[in-house]
Structures are given as structure tokens and as C-alpha cells.
Design brief:
heterodimer; A: 142 residues; alpha+beta; three-stranded antiparallel sheet; 37% helix; globular; B: 400 residues; alpha/beta; Aspartate Aminotransferase, domain 2; 2 domains; seven-stranded mixed sheet; 14 helices
Chain lengths: 142, 400
């Protein structure tokens, strides 16, 4: 058993190989944010459609390491149907969890919980976080 | 001989393998002690005090300049201390490039360049309207004289080129490039960051116009670099930083500068770094470049021959001239692979190594880079190979 098994959980690998909600829509009602991490080659774009304060759709395109790609995919699945307030709370909680800060363990992170192991790998925090930071930025464009 | 050398580097410890020398080299005890000595015993500024500590600090600082000059066969006054290769290359681009280039000028550059060599000149091109001309690389990513000749012409004003690529490890034919460039009256700016620790550099023999390098890649401290410039060009160039010590006469409306190199050394310089650098040069000279090359090549050849036996590895520079091997685990993003090595306390670099254009050329997103240097050992290479085999198996098993 390698320590890395805490990082490369099955769910993560599954999302990496079959990313959900992949592909961007050319629709001005969607807000998009692209973040690149030039030091490692990650390139992630998150796209959201918000109606009446509720996230109706979330799309993503991600290339880079498995953690960053899977993170974008998991995020896109759990955010659809959430209100902006719920989504931001979840995103902040996730970002705190992966960066080993205090976070609300009672708040259900759903499938994103599998990124819990990232905190043991400080060099990978950024990989897990990029999609969530981009996602939050799309909401602030509202 | 290697065990004795390894004792000089306190960073080398059992269970930790440092294969990231292309990012920064390890530092020997003599360098650490020189830096500590300055901070502990002197801690004075240069050129400013009449007291013993200040005079002694100034002496050591200037002796280091002499040492650097001899090391690359330059005149003492042609050695400008900087913050590192990046600031040296930026000084030339900002001071020479912005002033002397225009929309009729061409700058020859290559996709091999580190961002610190490429971006300052991309900026010059944008601001002056000068055109960037890229030397077409051959199939291995090498620069050939034939390809260089194809972009060289009467409009060429500056040739910007690395001596050794920080990703591919190739030694570029600098001397021939300089000769050809000078026929067209173009100046040649060489990024020596990866060369200075590997080969004997003679700026007179090479006839280079500007040559920049960093202390921390040649066993010296971080924060100090060197810009060599031919006297005639250093005379011509305006400083880009203004402040203490570089001025001669200061008036309300106009001021004058000291002679080079001092006019380029505004403010308090990284004094401890400069003093430490002198010891790094002594260390390199004591070992000698022949032995450095011999040991580095020995390790590199063993490393590459063993890597080639592993299925599931893609190597991008089979014919590196130095200790740099750039590779990927097939189907595994470099950032995932590097975590495996990190868990085993092996220091490598992953990503684009501040050289995106060469990754575009190789049609990859990122890569792993291992660098071996004279202070590494065959045993370390063996462990690295074992870990690489395990890593290939591990990533395959979990589904990559």
C-alpha cells in the first residue's frame, strides 16, 4: 500500500478517465473563467449557467494532471442544482479541506470528499483547487 | 574520489536523491562558510565606510569580481554583478534593445530559450516593432548552423541564444554563431545559466558580446548573478536601475553615472552572495571541468541506458550533451508522476521548466526532468531506475 493511494482514489481515477459535463457551450448566458498554471501545464476552463440564483448547468474543459482534471469533473456534477450561496459555501469548504485548513466537516461535500487525501500532499493542493477557484470566479461575474 | 566530494555537500544525505541541479545546484561547505563568515564577522556595506569591516567587505567583493573575470577570461571591469541570469538578460534587452532596435530590425531567437531569455526580447519586439525570427530546430530539437544561416540577414541586429538548453541539455555552437552574426554586425547575447557549471567558458575566444549566468547554478548562493559585457557595449549602455552608489554627481536637474560596471550596480548588492560565489568558483576550479564532465557523462550514460530498458518511458533528448534527461511516463501527466518520486525522496522537476516553447515544439504539455551532476553517484542512479520501474507499474495498476 503506497501513501499515494490516499491521493489516487478510485473515484478520482474514474472521473479522470471519464470527465463529466465536458465541453464548453458557445452561449452568452454562460459565464466562463479559464485558469492556466504555467508551471505544471494545467489548463482549466469552468462555465456556469445561473437562473434565479440557482446553478442550472456547469460545464468544464480541463487538461493537466489527473487531480486537476478529476477535480473539475466532480465539481461540475455536484454543483448543478445548488444555489449560488450553497455553491460558494461548498467551494470554500472544499478549498479549506484540501489546503489542510479548518473546514466544516458537517457540511456534505458529496463526491468531492474523495479529495480529502490531497492535504497530505502540499505540492498538489493547487492541482485540486484550480477548478474550484475558476468556478467561484464565474459566479462573481453574475 | 566521489565519496570525498560528496562529503563537501551537507545537503547530500542518505535516503535523499537530488537530481534537480538544472534548477539549482547544491552548495558546498566552503560557500556556506563564506556566506556565514560575511554575515557573522563583517556584515558591513561596500564602498561606504572607512572602518575595517567595510574596507574588508569591499576588498572581498572586488576580489570576487576579479575571480569571476579570470574564470571566464574577461577584464575585471566587464563583470557586472546582478540578481541572476534573468536580471542580466533583462538589462541588455531593456537598455540595448529598447534603444537601438526599431521596426526595421530583426532579433534571432530560438524555441529552446528559457522564458528569461525569450520574454525580455518578445517585449522589445512588441515595443519597438522589431521582428522576432526563430531558428528552425531540427527533428531532435537541435540548433544547426544551416538553420541559423537561413534567418541571419542584414536586418539582424541581435542574436539571443542559450549556450546549453535547460530542457534538452544540448550545447549550442556558440562560436560559429557569433562569427556569423558579427559578419552581419549583429550582437550576440548568450544565456549561460546551464553552461557555466559544465564547460569552460572563454568569452574572448567565443567573442560573445553579452553573457549572463547565475551563481546558484554553479554551486554558489542564490540572489547573485553575473552579466559579462564587452567594454565597448557596457560603455554605451544606460543603466536601467538608478539609486545609491551608481551615481557620480547628483544635481536637481541632471546627474551623471560612474563608469561601468558600477553604474549598473545600484543600491546594496547581494554582498554575501558575491563573496560566496568566489568560493564556488574556487571549488569548480579545484575539481576541474574535465573531471566534472567525466563524472557527469558517466552518470548520464548509465542513466539513459537503464531508462531505455524500461517499457513505458518516453525520452525527449536521447543525445543530451550534459546531465539533463527529459522524459515522461507514458500516459501519466508529469505532475502525477513527480508525486511518486517525491514520496521516495527523489528531487526532480516536473512541468514546463520555464520553457513553454520547447514543449510546444515537442508537442507535449509538460515533462519530467532529471539532472545528474558530478556530486551524484551510480548508486543514486540505480535507486532512481528502480523507483522509475515501480512508478511505471504503480500508475499502470491504478488505471493511467
Amino acid at each position: 500500500m503506497s501513501n499515494l493511494d490516499n491521493l489516487y482514489r478510485e473515484v478520482i481515477m474514474e472521473h479522470y478517465k471519464n470527465p463529466r459535463n465536458k465541453g464548453l457551450l458557445d452561449d452568452s448566458k454562460y459565464k466562463s473563467i479559464r485558469i492556466k498554471n504555467p508551471s505544471c501545464g494545467d489548463d482549466i476552463t469552468m462555465q456556469t449557467l445561473v437562473c434565479d440564483g440557482v446553478i442550472k448547468d456547469c460545464r468544464q474543459v480541463a487538461s493537466g494532471c489527473s487531480i486537476s482534471v478529476a477535480s473539475a469533473s466532480v465539481l461540475s456534477e455536484i454543483m448543478i442544482g445548488k444555489t449560488i450561496k450553497e455553491a460558494i459555501e461548498l467551494a470554500n469548504n472544499f478549498l479549506n479541506m484540501v489546503s489542510n485548513k479548518e473546514y466544516n466537516q458537517a457540511l456534505d461535500l458529496e463526491e468531492a470528499e474523495v479529495f480529502n487525501g490531497v492535504k497530505q500532499f502540499p505540492a498538489r493542493i493547487k492541482c485540486a483547487s484550480i477548478a474550484w477557484v475558476a468556478f467561484k470566479d464565474t459566479l462573481s461575474k453574475e | 574520489m566521489n565519496d570525498k566530494i560528496r562529503e563537501d555537500f551537507p545537503q547530500i544525505k542518505p535516503g535523499y536523491i537530488y537530481f534537480d541541479t538544472a534548477a539549482t545546484s547544491l552548495k558546498p561547505n566552503s560557500v556556506i562558510e563564506a556566506v556565514n563568515m560575511y554575515n557573522r564577522d563583517l556584515s558591513a556595506n561596500i564602498n561606504r565606510g572607512m572602518y575595517y569591516q567595510s574596507v574588508e567587505t569591499t576588498n572581498l567583493y572586488e576580489q570576487s569580481r576579479e575571480k569571476v573575470a579570470k574564470f571566464i577570461n574577461a577584464k575585471t571591469e566587464e563583470i557586472v554583478f546582478t540578481r541572476g541570469t534573468t536580471s542580466g538578460l533583462n538589462l541588455v534587452a531593456s537598455s540595448y534593445g529598447l534603444k537601438y532596435l526599431n521596426q526595421d530590425s530583426e532579433i534571432i531567437i530560438s524555441e529552446q530559450e528559457h522564458h528569461s531569455s525569450f520574454l525580455p526580447w518578445q517585449n522589445v519586439a512588441k515595443k519597438t516593432g522589431a521582428k522576432l525570427r526563430f531558428i528552425e530546430l531540427d527533428q531532435h530539437g537541435k540548433i544547426t548552423i544551416e538553420a541559423f544561416k537561413r534567418v541571419l540577414n542584414d536586418k539582424t541586429k541581435v542574436v539571443v541564444i542559450n549556450y546549453i538548453s535547460n530542457v534538452l541539455g544540448y550545447i549550442n555552437p556558440i562560436k560559429e554563431i557569433v562569427n556569423l552574426a558579427h559578419e552581419f554586425k549583429a550582437i550576440v547575447v548568450v544565456d549561460g545559466a546551464q553552461a557555466i557549471q559544465h564547460i569552460k567558458v572563454d568569452v574572448v575566444d567565443l567573442n560573445i558580446d553579452f553573457f549572463a549566468f547565475s551563481g546558484h547554478k554553479m554551486l554558489g548562493p542564490t540572489g547573485v548573478g553575473i552579466l559579462y559585457g564587452k567594454s565597448s557595449y557596457l560603455e554605451l549602455l544606460e543603466p536601467i536601475e538608478f539609486g545609491g552608489d551608481m551615481n557620480e554627481d547628483v544635481e536637481k536637474t541632471n546627474s551623471t553615472w560612474k563608469k561601468y560596471p558600477t553604474k549598473f550596480e545600484a543600491g546594496t548588492m547581494p554582498i554575501a552572495g558575491v563573496i560566496g560565489l568566489s568560493k564556488a568558483i574556487e571549488y569548480l576550479e579545484n575539481i576541474g571541468f574535465e573531471r566534472i564532465e567525466e563524472q557527469t557523462k558517466l552518470l548520464y550514460r548509465y542513466l539513459i541506458s537503464e531508462l531505455l530498458k524500461i517499457e513505458g518511458i518516453k525520452i525527449y533528448n536521447l543525445y543530451s550533451d550534459t546531465g539533463i534527461v527529459t522524459f515522461n511516463l507514458v500516459n501519466v501527466p508529469s505532475h502525477d508522476a513527480i508525486s511518486y518520486y517525491a514520496e521516495k525522496n527523489i528531487a526532480l522537476r516536473s512541468g514546463q521548466h520555464c520553457a513553454k516553447l520547447i514543449h510546444d515544439f515537442l508537442e507535449i504539455n509538460s515533462s519530467l526532468r532529471a539532472t545528474v551532476y558530478f556530486y551524484n553517484s551510480i548508486e543514486e542512479v540505480k535507486t532512481f531506475i528502480d523507483v522509475t520501474k515501480e512508478a511505471v507499474k504503480y500508475f499502470k495498476k491504478i488505471g493511467f
